Amino acid sequence: MNPELQGRVFEPTAPYLVGREKIREFARAVFATSPLNHDPEAAVAAGYSDIVAPPTFPVVIQESTLAQLLAEPDAGIDFTRVVHGDQRFSYTRPIVAGDELTAVLNVASIKSLGGHSMVTAESTITDASGAHVVTAISTLVVRGDE
Amino acid sequence: MADLNLEKGQIVAETTFSITRDSLVRYAGASGDFNPIHYRDDVATSVGLPGVLAHGMLTMGFAIQPVVDWIGDSGKVLDYQVRFTRPVLVDAVVGASVTVVARVGSIDDDVARIDLTVTYGEQTVLGKAQARVSLV
Predict the structure, then answer these.
(1) Which chain A residues are closer than 8 Å to B84 by Cβ?
(2) Which residue segments constitute the domains of chain A, with CATH numbers given?
(3) Is A71 in contact with A105 (CB distance < 8 Å)?
(4) CB-based contacts of B94: which residues, under 8 Å, 6+ apart?
(5) Which pLDDT tens digit goes with each residue over A70-79?
(6) Which of A65, B24, B85, B110 would be B127's cystine partner, CB 3.0–4.6 Å?
(7) pTM (two decimals)
(8) Among positive and negative, which fits the CA dihedral B69, B71, B76, B78?
(9) What is the predicted pLDDT for the residue at A53?
(10) How far is residue B135 from each of residues A49, A134, B87, measured CA to CA in Å?
(11) Which residues of A touch chain B, with CB atoms under 8 Å apart?
């Protein structure tokens, strides 16, 4: 893949409105049974404005930034050779229903290792006021020719 | 609220999850990851895999839940990271059984690092699986 991608910052994604039913759907899919993920009254009692998204929910928003990376004409990334190496979420505050979130992708690093390439993609997710919510960091391994 | 007289190495939660093909389809829809290696045997085997695999992000997603249930608030997870080291093969008939053990890795004032051991068929499937959780 193209080493000049390192340091590239992409256009912000279109705002994503976090819906209550989307959080519930995602929560059911990851076996999250906490009332804070499902019941608005329980969430408000715990001090939140609405139900809280499970910790890995930002992947839904990060997905659109990784699509930008794979679609970049000069990236040279063959999607069929991509393997997810590792993943991290670093929070300033949890996501709640009603948040309108925007993500900016930054290609933090590109490394070559034994014929494979490793790209670290950082998606910085902010709310409608521009305040930081969470950063999602993925390392993708692009397998070389066998 | 969890008992917060914590000691390093203490097990705070332990849960076994039963994953089926239905779980994978549900996660595909919820997350938007429709890679067919997670629901089609023919596609999985054509790219050299032994069969349909669970999404790594599904395993990451449920592996934190015992910690969330222990601490009582998913908003107290400040940071969560994993490395995907081995795949979870999900049989069409019997599914897959994945066990999560959560231990205290370190304590620093009001934040604990919780280390997760996630195993499938006697082997760990996540490496360096760690969450930092707020204790206040």
Answers:
(1) 83-87
(2) 3-19+55-142 (3.10.129.10)
(3) no
(4) none
(5) 888 888 887 7
(6) B85
(7) 0.95
(8) negative
(9) 98
(10) 21, 19, 32
(11) 25-26, 28-34, 36-37, 46, 48, 52-56, 59-60, 63, 80, 83-91, 93-94, 137
Site of tokens 């930092």: B132
Parallel/antiparallel/unpaired status of strands B96-108 and B77-84: unpaired
Partner residue facing A86 (CB), from B29, B79, B84:
B84
For position B1, what pLDDT does the model report? 47
Given a cut of 80, whether residue B57 has pLDDT beyond it is yes
Cα A30 to Cα B122: distance, rounded to the nearest angstrom: 22
pLDDT digits (tens, 9 = 90+) for A17-30: 999 999 999 999 99
Nearest CA in chain A to B37: A80
Walk me through the domains of chain B, giving residue ranges and CATH numbers: 11-19+53-134 (3.10.129.10)
Residue of B nearest to A86 (CA): B83
ipTM of the complex: 0.95
Do residues B20 and B42 lie in contact, with contact meaning Cβ atoms separated by under 8 Å? no
